[in-house]
Structures are given as C-alpha cells and as structure tokens.
Amino acid sequence: VSEPPATPVRAQILVASNRGPISYALGEDGALDARRGGGGMVSGLSAIGSGADSLWVCSALGDGDREALRRGVGEPGVLMLDMDPDIHSAAYNDIANSVLWFIHHLLYQTPLEPVFDADFRRRWSAYESYNRAFARALADHAADGAAVLVQDYHLALVPGLLRELRPDLRIGHFSHTPWAPADYFRLLPDDIAEQLLRGLLGADRTCFLTRRWADAFTDCAVRVLGEDALTGRRIGVHGLGADAGFLKERSHRPDVAERMTALREQIGPGRRTVVRVDRTELSKNIVRGLLAYRQLLDTRPEWRERVVHLAFAYPSRQDLAVYREYTAEVRRVADEINEEYGTDGWTPVVLHVKDDFARSLAAYRLADVALVNPIRDGMNLVAKEIPVVSDEGCALVLSREAGAYEELAADALTVNPYDITGTADALHRALSMPADERLRRTERLAAAATALPPQRWFLDQLEALRAL
Ligand code: G6P
C-alpha cells in the first residue's frame, strides 16, 4: 500500500470512508470529469462541508481517481488514498461487497454460497492491509483529541486499529447497512467474526441507522464475544433523513424540467407512473419488483395501456460477476414484459440504466407510485426523497425490510419483499388510491422523512462523541 501524499492538515474532524464525495472519470480525450459519489452514505456525509479543520479520507476507486492523484487534482478537505489496485480490489470487491455485504443483506442462498478457503484468507489479508492504511492515514492527520467518524463495512477494523495508534482520539463508527441476525453472521469463520466485532467495538460509539440493526449487532457481540463484550461500550442509533432544502431547490432547476418533458413523452398522455430508482444491486430486489408489475398487468388487465413503470437501475459494482449477471437479468425481465404486453403506442417498462441525477429527480416529481421493495436495506433514502420532491403526491409501496420502514410504515403500503403477489396487490392499491388521500399521506411521509436531515444527523454524532 503506497503512503498517502503528504499534507500538512491536522484536522479536528475526520471522516473515513471507502467512497469519497467526488470521483473522477477519465474521458477518451484525457479530460477528468468530477462526479458526485452515489449511495446514501455519501449523501449523509456531505454535511461535513469543507471547513478548514475537517478532512475526509477516502480511497481512489478507479483509473480516473488514480489519474487525478497523479495530476495533483483534488477537492479541498479531501484526502484520497492511493491504494495498490490489487489490495483495493480484494478488500472492496471480494471482502466488503461480496462477503460482508452479502452477510448483512442475507443474500447468500443456494447456489450462491459463501466460500471460506485459502483464497478467501488471502483476500482477508488485503482487507486488513486496506484497513491499516486508513488507520495510519487518520492517525497521521488527526489533531490531538480530534473526532474521527469511520464509515461502513469496508472499514470495520479501523476503529480498533486506530485506537491502538492514537488512544487520544474520539472514534465513532457508523454502519449504513443492516446488521445480520446472529445465526447468519456466524456463517463467517469464528476468528473473522470476532475480529470484525472487536474492530467495531474499538470505537467509542458504534452506530446504526435503526434500533433493529443496533439490536442485531449487540446480540451478535454477546453471542460471539460473550456477556462482557459490551461493558462500557456505547451503541448509538441515528436515522438519516432526506435533505429537504437541497432536494427542493435542486429538483426545480431547468435541467430537471427538461428531463420531465422527455419522460412525459415516454410515458404518454393520461397514464399513471410507477417509479423506482436504485443502484442495480441484488439487495434492492429489482427483478421481483418487475415480476410483481408483470403480475399486475396479467391479473388486472384494466391497467394495460394505462400505466408505465419507469425503472431506473444504475450500474453498480460491475467488477463483480454476480452484479453483472443481475444487471443482465433486470434487462431481460424488462424486455420480456415489453414483448409480452407492449403495443404500438405503449411501452409498459421504461428501463434507464445511465446514472442521471436530474432525471431521477424528474421521475420523483412525476411519480404516482414509488416502488421501494428491497430484500433488506440499511435505510433507503429514495423512499424518503420521493415524498419530499413529489409534485402531486405519490403512493409509496415499501418493503418492511428497509430501515425506512420504521419511520414511514404508517403512511406507506408495506410489503414482504419476497411476496410477488402481495407486491402486485400493493401496486394495484397504490395506483387506485384517491388523489386527496395520496396527497395527505405524502405530506405526512415527507414530514417523517425529513425529521433528521443530514446536517443534524452528522452534528448529533459529533456532539455525542465530544460529550464523552
Ligand atoms: C451503500 C453503502 C455505501 C456505498 C454505497 C454505494 O449505500 O452503504 O458505503 O458507498 O452503497 O456503493 P459503492 O460500492 O458504489 O460505493
């Protein structure tokens, strides 16, 4: 692992995460294009701002980022670590996004089974090196007694490692994912399960998005490490909400209006719209969502020609074969539905795969129904953003396995994500909901969704650390 570039900063507030706020794409003409990082974690952390005494330590993720480092291009307040690409790939793709992501989202199912062999052990060593590199960089750049907020499953070992290097620091760890039930977590080899838990408990505060994930974690810690594991430890719950001010302003810019015009043309006059926006991710359950929509068209023919499903499924983690296969399956099922039911003037599923934030916001504003049906999800910010942005009210079909369920269940139509028939019924009820009821529910959803905006979410954690 190469050393981070020397920087004089000794920061008072540090954030550490695999993905940073900006990543760079390298164009064919050699130009670097800066893009905002995707996913809920980056959205929440943007509240750090770019104060003179704060530093966000993240990893260079691809050729564009590495080229930016070579050219000395960067953002103020952001330190990108230049990891050996093999170490990064093993830590990020093979351990974090395969094993740990799959454990916490319960994605292992025959024939997709966990494999803990010699290759796994080699990759685990890379994961350790990766975590050590972050711990060293944080230790080098933190002022005396600084607060360090470490993010997510990529960096589960960092709190423990950093505590050894710098006992003076206040360390928090935040998991943006669910936490697995103890029996499932214990699929992991015993020594690794222990190491992960001890790593996280190296933090002064180990935090989660909901009480449910926090309880699962404490249960694991007690089962794996014993009754005393939690003595003197603080487990926090901070439910991240949507940023109403930002979303309202951003969704009323001209580029969003342009996208709305284009989408309206694709939808056609007088039709209802079911919207989903996700990274193409197994846990998001996109295929079952499409199958539920197909069942709706099949069993309730009155909706044919009268509804369009806008499915935005943005490529994610394409280095991994299971993600590539899942992406292909999403496309295949969408095509099948269009072949089976489509007519000259009606395309039942409009699938967009090119990530375009303005177009996502345009769809949020137009949606009559939002479909958010993950198998499991730490929070799911889309469920919270749509009610805030919606122009005329939007009925929310929501999985009971999303963290957002705890805050939004009262005004959503909730589903078991595995139940395709139940989801098809919920889509029908959502599409049939009277306009005034939809609007009232949307207003209440928006209020619940914005209860803890990102700035507050971030400051609460910081204050809690400093109060120790
Ligand atoms: C989830 C994780 C984040 C991650 C995001 C996008 O929200 O909790 O840590 O950044 O997905 O995934 P990616 O692998 O592209 O960073």
TrEMBL record:
One annotated Gene Ontology cellular component of this protein: cytosol
Entries under Pfam families matching the protein: Glyco_transf_20 (PF00982)
GO MF annotation, one: trehalose-phosphatase activity
GO biological process, one term: trehalose biosynthetic process
Entries under InterPro entries matching the protein: Glyco_trans_20
SUPFAM superfamilies: UDP-Glycosyltransferase/glycogen phosphorylase
CDD domains, A to Z: GT20_TPS
Family, per entry: Belongs to the glycosyltransferase 20 family.
PANTHER family named in the record: BCDNA.GH08860, TREHALOSE-6-PHOSPHATE SYNTHASE
Protein's recorded name: Trehalose-6-phosphate synthase
Organism: Streptomyces inusitatus
Taxonomic lineage of the native organism: Bacteria, Bacillati, Actinomycetota, Actinomycetes, Kitasatosporales
